[in-house]
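We now fix the convention by which a protein and its fold are recorded. Think of the row as the fold of the chain written in a discrete alphabet. Here is one such record, which you should read through line by line.
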Amino acid sequence: MNNTISLRCATHNLCHFGKSPFDRDELFPDHSYRNGYEPEMLPVMKERWKAVYDSFDADLIGLQEYCPFFDLAHTIPVPEQVFLPYGLSVYADDFVNAAGHRLAAASKTPLLKAYERSFMPVSERRYQKFFMDIHGRRIAVFNTHPMPKGTPEAIATRQAEYRILLKEFRKERPLSPSATSTPARRKNSGSFSTPA
């Protein structure tokens, strides 16, 4: 009997997604970024994203630096414009960092459980853990945006973050599907409930 599961995964750093190219270096007084493109850029950006996601053809995409709205006025929701045409629903945590973006995942398969935790005390960066049921088997997947490499201190922090993730991976064991699993609260504007 073949128990192989085929799951095509990708990761995409959206590069401070929603940050206007006209205001890339502008900061608000509270040092948060000005997020959002001008609406007239939507057709151009959709063509760029189409090329990216056509090349991925992914079942699950880990997203970093995600913003749920395309425009500065926060009137154009990203999931409907970018991900839904590919059959992908977006699950994003409510936690928003100082740069105005967050971690998220775009998935063709419903995510059954999800949470986001920080790497504290190692760093303030965060990681997500999702559960999926694929052909009757429970799969755990993780998404993070680790400390960028650069200085020796940054590399050491990045390695410490990865060690935390490895500990999380080692906790996983093959599980049968649970009839009591509660799907994550999906909002195509980009939010899921985080268990206490």
Summary: Residues 18-33, 175-196 have pLDDT under 50 and may be disordered. Residues 86 and 108 are 8 Å apart (CA to CA). The chain is about 20% helix and 25% strand. The longest strand covers residues 126-134.
